[in-house]
From TrEMBL:
The keyword Transcription regulation does not apply. Transmembrane segments: none annotated. GO terms for molecular function: zinc ion binding. PROSITE patterns: ZINC_FINGER_C2H2_1, ZINC_FINGER_C2H2_2. Gene3D superfamilies: Classic Zinc Finger. InterPro entries: Krueppel_C2H2_ZnFinger (IPR050826), Znf_C2H2_sf (IPR036236), Znf_C2H2_type (IPR013087). The lineage of its organism: Eukaryota, Metazoa, Ecdysozoa, Arthropoda, Hexapoda. Residues 10-37, 38-65 form the C2H2-type domain. This is Zinc finger protein Gfi-1. It comes from the Eukaryota. Keywords: Metal-binding, Nucleus, Repeat, Zinc, Zinc-finger.
Amino acid sequence: MEKEHSGHKYNCENCPKSFSKAFQLAYHAASHSEERQFACSACGKSFKRRKQLAAHRKAHSDARPFACDQCGMRFKLKSVLK
């Protein structure tokens, strides 16, 4: 169910999705584009979104900020910690 607060809808030209805010539509529009404007300076891999690049950069870091409270093993990504 979509919420509409302002009476305006921002409709995607490429699919049936619509958004209540323009920035949401702009963020969504990247999913339809082949352009990958955010490139990793370490390896050259590129991404559609800045957040994807930020997550990828952790692969090049030695930092392991997420520790298992049971065994002490440390991980780069929280999603790997189970």
